[in-house]
Amino acid sequence: MPRHRRVKIIATMGPASCDPAIVRSLFDAGVDVFRLNFSHGTHKDHQRNVKTIRALESETDRPIGILMDLQGPKLRVGAMAGDSVELIAGERFRLDLDDAPGDARRAPLPHPEIFAALKPGADLLLDDGKLRLRVTECGADFAETEIITGGPLSNRKGVNVPGVILPISPLTDKDRKDLRFGLELGADWVGLSFVQRPEDVAEARRLIAGRAAIMIKVEKPAAIDHLERLIEMSDAVMVARGDLGVEMPPEDVPSLQKRIIRACRLAGKPVVVATQMLDSMIHAPAPTRAEASDVATAVYDGADAVMLSAETASGDYPVETVTMMDRIAVRTEADPLYRPVLHALHPEPEPTAPDAISAAAAQVAATIEAAAIVSYTTSGSTALRAARERPHVPILVLTSKLETARRLAVTWGAHCVRTADVSSFQEMVQKACGIAVTEGIAKAGDKIIVTAGVPFGTPGATNVLRIAWIEG
């Protein structure tokens, strides 16, 4: 049976959610895509999780997406004498390449690429932004700074350099090994961290070579300067609000979230909102009212998916968290204000046959009160264009390619079914009617809208719209 909502749910796997029985409960509660976080866990852990997901997919006969999320570069200070030192606001503090343990006057920073990019006046953020340093003088192997915001600094705390494009690839040696392994496992999506510029996506696409789709994570302010180009070069976008919120003022993040969602909808690319959505449910059986509102806001804005991280990976209530997210999404989509808000941002169709057909399908479905829009697709492009319109009715996606169905699991409103290829238009319509009934989307006497590209199998060639009646 199809979900009772259009927005999709992504859940991160971890120690709290690796047991097959828990994975089944998470799927039943509403998970559409499972995320494997390669910042944690071993290759053996991820291999076991993929096996569990694919067994569940076979058991339920429902395509399930797998997102492998690469760690990306991790910039950290070195060790501190006594494990921790206190930085005092107004004092001077030096960062350098010397690996001697740090103290209250200096600390090792084993990243020459940071020093290469720094200029006087630049800020450095330590420990998720809790500490702020301002560069007064710098060279190829050091930076003299003034402590703007002080506090304790302990071993191996993270470093952020806001407003500076660092001359490093988003793919470390670890990422490249993880990527090869994840692609061998059959991951459907690759989450690309630390994206700063279009060249970063191009590099990843060369390595992936079509074996998975690319979801860029917008977590660096530099990415905002190239947003439209990055969206064009990727297959989907994640609004990674945690890291983005470290390098930018918190008050800027909500408007950026809306801007990114809007840009992705215009481009017809799936967009995911992530980070701390139901954070309190890591240790509590219910969310705060603010968290519930945060999830609802992403749904109102038209995000394709909302994502859970530690809530399901290591939290005390993984199944309850997914159940709550599902309830919030269902309730939001049932709100009479949902459609007016959603369509206030409705993008105009592009002057192409696929967009014209997709826009017409949504309008016709609403006019004749059809039960569903059925999209035949090989590459997934027909379904993506249908989802871009955010129609009132479910989008039943029929495809002969299992990898396409799995990738579309992240797409708004798409209910995917793998089926054999058709050889004629009449067969296509008959199959669409039969599967719509079998899947519980339509019943005898209902009308459905069928869209496809003719000749069959031509990616992006949506050029046919047909109204069909479900016979008794």
Q: Can you describe what's shown?
A:
It is a single chain. With 472 residues, this protein is an alpha/beta fold. It has three domains: 8-73 and 169-332, Phosphoenolpyruvate-binding domains (TIM Barrel, Alpha-Beta Barrel); 81-160, PK beta-barrel domain-like (M1 Pyruvate Kinase, Domain 3), CATH 2.40.33.10; 353-469, Pyruvate kinase, C-terminal domain (Pyruvate Kinase, Chain: A, domain 1), CATH 3.40.1380. The protein contains 17 helices and 21 strands. The strands form four sheets. Strands 1-2-3-12-13-14-15-16 form an eight-stranded parallel beta barrel, surrounded by six helices. A six-stranded mixed β-sheet has the order 6-5-9-8-7-11, with no helix packed on it. A five-stranded mixed β-sheet has the order 19-18-17-20-21, sandwiched between helices. Helix 14 crosses helix 15. The chain is elongated, with a radius of gyration of 24 Å. 46% of the residues are buried. The mean pLDDT is 94.
Short description:
The chain has helices at 20-29, 43-60, 112-117, 173-185, 198-208, 221-224, 227-233, 241-247, 253-267, 289-301, 310-313, 318-334, 338-344, 353-368, 381-388, 402-407, 425-438, and strands spanning 8-12, 33-37, 65-69, 84-87, 92-96, 106-108, 123-126, 131-139, 142-149, 151-154, 159-160, 189-192, 213-218, 236-240, 271-274, 305-308, 372-376, 395-399, 414-418, 447-453, 462-469. The protein has 472 residues and is of the alpha/beta class. The strands form four sheets. An eight-stranded parallel β-barrel has the order 1-2-3-12-13-14-15-16, surrounded by six helices. A six-stranded mixed beta sheet has the order 6-5-9-8-7-11, with no helix packed on it.
